[in-house]
Write a structure and sequence with these properties.
XdhC_Rossmann_dom, disordered C terminus, alpha/beta, 389 residues, 3 domains, 16 strands, 5-stranded antiparallel sheet, MoCofactor_Util/Proc, elongated
Length: 389
């Protein structure tokens, strides 16, 4: 929803009903992940995408029908579904798409949710997308908004609300988006109610240490990927906003002290990526000593293989274990033959993506089988993001 939130809020504020289609589950090589959203306004305007063009035509028509009927629909599209196939979903994937009418009456909390997303306040939108029977208290489209310290709305039952709030706060803390199943009264081992949980957190952080030309390119691609990018260097003459205009912040500080302070303050987490580009032992050794002891998503360091070997010896002397050293991506990046700062930034970004999604880094043309993994194949696939998103 994040990518279409501005349009959704504008139409909502203007009193224009919208058909909102959200991918709530995927199987096999689906073209878009869970959370991908398409909006169709009452005047026929469409924004966003649920399948990269594959089934947009069918979803567009369904969204228009839902605006008129006011009845939410959970629709599956896949190669075994003739309608979806004729619309072009030939990639072998299966999408479960929930289509609902959104207006001031059906989603009164939208303005508060939008505010939270824009300001980095953790919030989860829990929507009932299916029920296995008739229950007037809980029906598709009912919604519960969950924050870290309170909730708003109801799914129709106080016990169901209590169970969902407890479970969703755990998902929210981990940045996870996905489906949950309950009984009508909150029983966790039953499946009369299917809920879609969309978790929205502050964007993950990318910390770039070393104010060099390569850092400027890495900062640009980090912003493009949805990270909140910080460039840090102890040398004030190099660490300037003018040299790094696309970074969200430029900090003059000793890298290791800055990273440790951010960790102590709880401002780095398992989604954080660290790129050490300093080429200077007095900077990169100490900051890697801190970074490799933290539960981060990625830690990479620039340098030749000789530099890497010398760096490992110094880090061992600092007491780092072989397991901790094994998490270090060094020399940083994938083997793309990169030469320029921009090409090197693509190489680094590719490695970060591969690490996040458990990709091999090989050419897809040389591989067989599915292109994308199912969420159950790798824990990282159940986490939101991308943004990551």
């Amino acid at each position: 929803m994040r990518e279409v939130l501005k349009d959704l809020e504008r139409w909502w504020a203007d009193g224009i009903p919208v058909g909102m289609a959200t991918v709530v589950a995927t199987r096999h090589s689906a073209p878009r992940p869970a959370g991908a959203t398409m909006l169709v306004a009452a005047d026929g305007t469409a924004v966003g995408s649920v399948a990269g063009g594959c089934v947009e035509g069918a979803v567009y028509e369904l969204a228009q029908e839902v605006i008129e009927s006011r009845t939410a629909v959970l629709q599956r599209y896949g190669v075994s579904d003739y309608d979806a196939f004729t619309d072009g979903l030939t990639c072998g994937g299966i999408l479960d798409v929930f289509v609902e009418r959104v207006d001031r009456k059906s989603f009164p909390q939208l303005a508060a949710v939008s505010y939270a997303v824009r300001h980095g306040i953790a919030v989860a939108v829990v929507t009932c997308v299916a029920t296995s029977g008739e229950d007037p208290a809980c029906s598709p489209g009912r919604r519960l908004i969950v924050y870290a310290d309170h909730s708003d709305g109801s799914l129709g039952s106080a016990r169901l609300d209590a169970a969902v709030v407890a479970d969703v706060r755990g998902m929210l803390a981990a940045g996870r988006t996905g489906l949950l199943h309950y009984g009508y009264d909150g029983e966790r081992r039953r499946d009369e109610v299917t809920l879609y949980v969309a978790s929205h957190q502050a964007p993950p952080r990318m910390l770039v240490f070393g104010a060099i030309d390569f850092a400027a390119a890495v900062a640009r691609i980090g912003v493009f990927l949805g990270y909140r990018v910080t460039v840090c260097d102890a040398r004030a003459v190099f660490a300037t906003e003018r040299r790094f205009p696309e970074a969200h912040e430029v900090v003059v500080a000793w890298p290791d002290r800055y990273l440790q302070a951010e960790a102590n303050a709880g401002r780095v987490d398992e989604r954080t990526v660290v790129c050490v580009l300093t080429h200077d032992p007095k900077f990169d050794g100490p900051v890697l000593d801190v970074a490799l002891r933290l539960p981060l998503a990625y830690v990479g360091a620039m340098g030749s293989r000789r530099t890497h070997d010398d760096r490992l010896d110094r880090l061992r002397e600092l007491g780092l274990s072989e397991a901790e050293l094994g998490t270090l991506a060094s020399p940083i990046g994938l083997d793309l033959g990169a030469r320029t700062p921009e090409e090197t930034a693509v190489s680094i970004a590719a490695e970060i993506i591969a690490r996040r999604w458990n990709g091999s880094g090989e050419r897809l043309a040389s591989r067989t089988g599915r292109i994308h993994q199912d969420p159950q194949d790798h824990p990282a696939l159940t986490r939101a993001g991308a943004h990551v998103g």
